[in-house]
Design goal:
Elements lengths: L2 E10 L2 E10 L2 E9 L6 E10 L4 H11 L9 E6 L6 E6 L15 E2 L29 E2 H14 L1 H6 L3 E6 L5 E7 L2 H14 L8 E4 L5 H9 L4 E4 L5 H10 L2 E4 L7 E4 L4 E2 L5
Parallel strand pairs: 3-6, 4-7, 8-15, 11-12, 12-13
Antiparallel strand pairs: 1-2, 3-4, 5-6, 9-10, 9-11, 13-14
Helix pairs in contact: 1-4, 4-5, 5-6
């Protein structure tokens, strides 16, 4: 993942000096869809999202899945990065699969800070959660939860140099990091994460999701759609995020630190242990 070098003037202790700095890269990505039987193909621009370049195939797959445009990998023929030039990605669907694009109801521009801002109705924001809730067989020790932020920080290479990226990470219940994705948009980082599993290991994700910032409604919705049952956030959850977590059977942790955290939903999955 690239960084953008800049020369700045830094004011510190009353003195002005020149210094080199690095910024997180933000560029638009146009997600395109090609579908229909041979000789009757249709191509449509689905969205433009402001993202950090890299893992664009995962981002497109995750976006298409969490938007309900595709439901499983078999509906995808291939995803081509830069198919129509730089900062484009084309998802080609199997010839016999015609997606229902109406429920998405999204305008063609999505900012890096909001993944639902392009929705044209409240009904389009909420989506059906298809994976069954299984509370009893998936638990995590509180001592493992406490260790997650340190593991995330050690892996966030670009964040250390720029300070400008959100991160999402998937852990197993023993606290082992399975996959990390970073992006200027928190919803893009999660789509990249979900998209990778969608294309490779498969879903649902019976695992733990860690968010580097706050837990918003859109992130809990994406987690629920992917079958994630435990979500932990370094920051605060929103009221609607807590409500959706309760409805979807998700354990939601907020204000996670090395010595404390709050449980807002699903406390039965957190097993009490001493902090190590």
């Amino acid at each position: 993942m690239e960084v953008f070098p800049v020369n700045i003037r830094r004011m510190q202790s009353g003195a002005l000096t020149e210094a080199d700095d690095q910024l997180a890269v933000e560029e638009p990505l146009q997600i395109q869809l090609l579908y229909g039987s041979s000789g009757n193909e249709q191509q449509k621009n689905i969205a433009v999202t402001m993202r950090t370049p890299g893992n664009d195939e995962d981002l497109a797959a995750g976006f298409l899945f969490t938007e309900g445009i595709v439901n499983n990998k078999t509906q995808l023929s291939q995803i081509i990065v830069a198919a129509s030039g730089e900062n484009t990605v084309l998802a080609i669907l199997k010839g016999d699969y015609v997606p229902n694009l109406e429920p998405s109801e999204r305008n063609f521009y999505v900012t890096s800070s909001c993944g639902v801002c392009g929705k044209s109705s409240i009904d389009a924001v909420r989506k059906e959660i298809e994976y069954p809730v299984n509370s009893e067989s998936f638990c995590i020790a509180s001592s493992v939860v406490h260790r997650l932020p340190d593991t995330l920080r050690r892996q966030q290479e670009i964040f250390r140099s720029t300070g400008g990226l959100h991160a999402c990470a998937i852990f197993d219940i023993s606290g082992n990091l399975l996959l990390l994705r970073e992006d200027v948009g928190r919803h893009n980082a999660l789509d990249k994460l979900i998209g990778n599993f969608f294309l490779n290991e498969g879903l649902p994700l019976q695992s733990v999701l860690l968010l580097s910032g706050r837990a918003s409604f859109e992130l809990i919705q994406k987690a629920a759609i992917a079958g994630i049952r435990i979500v932990a956030a370094i920051g605060a959850p929103s009221s609607l995020a807590v409500q959706l977590a309760q409805e979807a059977g998700i354990t939601l942790v907020g204000f996670l630190k090395s010595d404390r955290f709050n449980i807002y939903a699903g406390p039965e999955r957190i097993v009490e242990t001493a902090v190590q």
